[in-house]
Amino acid sequence: MIFYLCGMHGSGTSLASRYLHHCGVDMSGSTPIDHLGENRRYRIISHKILRCSGVHRYGVKFNHSSISPSSDVKKEMGAQIKNSLTHFDNWGWKAPINSLCIWAWLPLLSQLTKEKVTIVLIFRNPFEIIRSFYRRKSPKDIRWIGKQGKPRVCLEQIWVNYNRSVMLFNDLHKNNPKYKFHYVEGKSIVSSPERFVNALSIKPRPSVGIVDSTKFIQENKLNFHTQEGKRIWESLQIRRAKCI
């Protein structure tokens, strides 16, 4: 099985990736996954996809039609996928920017394998995302966001773009038998990681020492700066309910 993990920064993607790796899904590509649960080689290529497409990694002003990797980057992508297909049975990779790069990776992946690809979008309410961003990101990142407009409104728009990108790809390819989409709220992985991997047809292993709930701070507040943010949240909840 092949797993493609995506979701806005701070949604719980690292936690999901580390636990999947613990349960036997190779998320590393033969090199140790880092503290973010990411395969470094795939992440490097994804950043190249964004750079040559003129898209910032935060996707502030994102249109999926702008994703257009160069021929050289496509060669790198193909070589990396073929290497993974050769060496692993259950594998995948995770990166927040997978949400934006889905328009490049998934079509190529479906060409190179007959296997079904499981796309997992991890999401979290935007209030928590904004709080997490301010806690974890550098002053440089916060200043950059501030230059785009009101920081909290801008962060919510980034959250909208990350989630909307995946949902739009899903809607445009809903009849493609090679794709299986799962929408998972980050807090559900914290509360029941075993249920999370069971839903993906993976046998769970003990999560003690792997899933650290103390690092995933949850808030009860849910407020939106835009009507678009509210609509995206409602759509995510509907899609999540259909998955589990």
Annotation keywords:
four-stranded parallel β-sheet; Rossmann fold; about 240 residues; about 10% strand
* Order of helical and strand elements: EHHHEHEHHHEHHH
Our count of helices gives: 10
Helix coverage percent of residues? Answer: 40-55%
The class by helix and strand makeup works out as alpha/beta
Contiguous uncertain segments of 5+ residues? none
Bulk shape: globular
CATH class: Alpha Beta
Q: Gyration radius, to the nearest Å?
A: 17 Å
Predict the CATH topology.
Answer: Rossmann fold
Tally of domains: 1
CATH architecture: 3-Layer(aba) Sandwich
Alpha-carbon distance between the two ends: 19 Å
For the biggest sheet, the summary is: 4 strands, parallel
Write down how many β-strands occur, each being a DSSP E stretch of 2 or more residues: 4
Percent of residues in β-strands:
5-15%
Q: Mean pLDDT, rounded to whole units?
A: 89
If strands are numbered along the chain, what order do they take across the biggest sheet? 2-1-3-4
Notes on the protein architecture:
There is one protein chain. The chain is of the alpha/beta class and 244 residues long. The protein has a single domain, classed as Rossmann fold (3-Layer(aba) Sandwich), CATH 3.40.50. 52% of the residues lie in helices and 9% in strands. The chain contains ten helices and four strands. The protein has helices at residues 13-22, 40-53, 71-87, 98-112, 126-136, 139-147, 151-172, 186-191, 193-199, 227-243, and strands at 2-6, 91-94, 117-123, 179-185. It has a four-stranded parallel sheet with strand order 2-1-3-4, sandwiched between helices. α5 crosses α7 (151-172). The chain is globular. The two termini are 19 Å apart. The mean pLDDT is 89.
